Amino acid sequence: MIPKQIQSGIYLEQKKNRSNYYTKNLIPNQQVYDEKLVGEYRQWSIKKSKFAAALAKGVSNIKLNKGDVVLYLGASTGTTVSHISDIVEKSGMIFAVELSFRMAQKLIFLAETRPNIAPILADANHPESYHNLICEADFVFQDIAQKNQVEIFLKNLQFLKPGKQAMLCIKAKSIDITKQPKQIYSTIRDQLQKKVKIITEKRLDPLELDHCVFLVQKH
What we know:
This protein is an alpha/beta fold. It has helices at about 50-55, 80-90, 100-115, 150-155, 170-175, 180-195, and strands spanning about 5, 10-15, 20-25, 35-40, 40-45, 70-75, 95-100, 115-120, 135-145, 160-170, 195-205, 210-215. The chain contains 6 helices and 12 strands.
């Protein structure tokens, strides 16, 4: 089985009742989590990665390519980071920022086998703490469940090159549990439009309840 490439580094296997997404394994035969390995490809779980969930919900035209520099905020144990590592290949680099030492331990182990991942144990609320550790990015991805998610995202866009894209994953209940998610998304839309161009906005339900992604472009 050879899945069809739908954009740079991302592959799709279309079946009758479902779509399976894959990346080509940077490290042959390496299994990072419990993903299925199919030849030289790794299945990208839409239940364990909001990036993959966004693909499944129809987010397309994501400008992420071989050789790109990526700033990943909220890297956790590296599930999604590992697939982005496959996409940017050895000529690219991912600066993976994670606040939790427990999560970062697994990320560090992953980076030992994947030379294009640079783990950074830091608080994305304070980008000045890693300002001298990274370079300009071609793509920014954020998945941080904090009340000030949008503020963190906008602060870190200082590292994004003009004209390049970023993806923000919003967890509505982390912002305000008393409001309906659609109210929160509307407020965020207004905040973002003042700073960036919104390319796509997509809710991730039912794959990720009360989550939404915004794909944006820096002016």
